[in-house]
Amino acid sequence: MRLSTLPNQAPSTTSSCTVERPWLSILIPVYNVEPYLLECLNSVANQALDGVEIVVVDDASTDASSDLLTQWNQAHEGRLRVLTHPQNSGIGAARNSLIQSARGEYIWFLDSDDIMLPGAIARLREILDQRAVDMVLCDFKIVRPAMKLKHRLRGELHVKSFALKKGSVGEVQIQLTRGVFASGQVHLWTKIFRRQLIAEGFQFPVGRCFEDVAMMPELLSRARSYFYAPEVWIGYRKRPGSILAGSGLAKNDDMMQSLLGLPRRLPSDLDAETAFACAFFSAGFFLSACRQAGKLGAHERLPLYLAQFAQSIPLPIPSLLKAYRGRGWWWRAAKLQHWVKRCTAGSDQKQEDALFAIQGKD
Question: Which of 34, 147, 153, 237 allows an S-S link to 63, with CB 3.0 to 4.6 Å?
């Protein structure tokens, strides 16, 4: 199979795993994670059962990550299948290469600075032996250099990735969409899914951050069944230098673009609670982007962010504000209204009215 991430460019395979017809592919994109890479690889290899393949792509790392991969693989008898990009192509391209190379029935992405907790793979297999669902969701904990009391009080030792009841089993995409967006955990590494779901027409955007958020609605819409295991299987590392720890206008722009056109990508028969969950999540991105633009003095970005926000929620902004107040969320409503007004400052009343007219009014 030819893997391509850029025109006329294919990742090369430096070693191979001998597992035939694996039931699970664990996919790890690697870029400049030298201090954390060995812990990540060991956390997977120490529990990988028969029928589990581990595929890694080195996205042209400039630190010692590539050497570590080679040394680790030699010491573990070629346990990894290692792909390499000749030049850095970004996380989206890395994920696309991994998907094209994966052979397992199920796919599990793991970030190379995170860890898989002991027993996670065995527990996943146990669940799938009992119910052959399209997607399994798990919880995670946050890993810090020093876990303080305030972090424990925030619940960082067990963060839920799904906001419906424990052990929920369903066949409705609306349930799945609501549970994921209401939790606020719209990322890949707590979702294990059938490779068949992404067999056709599924590509992560290249050259942008928040590529997993951009594709999550599509992934959820393809699943016909799921199981939520409220168990901590992943350790998510909070660290400086990570993609999400960075700041700047480029990250802001990617964040806002990731949900652009979301209403068109959601189930057509969306209920009010699911629509609210998606709008609330999108509002979080909008507020974060506005605050960062304000700090950087990039006030000219604000009208664009508001226009993108309006196209990223499945209900009008006035309806979202009304829903906030109906829940007693007066402070949240005030913050959202404040930034909406900041974004329209300097525009005439006709322009502001036009924005709300496009969305509709109560």
Answer: 34
Q: How many CB atoms lie within 10 A of CB 356?
A: 15
Put residue 60 in one of left, alpha, beta given phi > 0 → left and psi -120 to 50 → alpha: left
Position 17 scores a pLDDT of 45
172: CATH: 3.90.550.10
User: What pLDDT digit, counting tens, does each position of 113-158 carry?
Assistant: 999 999 999 999 999 999 999 999 999 999 998 888 998 998 899 9
Whole-angstrom CA distances from 328 to 141, 160, 287 are: 30, 24, 19
CB 14 within 8 A of CB 82: yes
For residues 126 and 220, state if they share a domain: yes
Can you say whether residue 177 is alpha, beta or left, with left for phi > 0 and alpha for psi between -120 and 50 degrees? alpha
Looking at the structure, tell me whether residues 268 and 230 fall in a common domain: no
Residue 190 to residue 29: CA distance in whole angstroms: 15
Task: Give me the phi and psi of 178, to 5 degrees please.
Answer: -65, -45
Number of domains in the chain: 2
pLDDT at 55 over 60: yes
Residue 211 CA, distance from chain mean position? 7
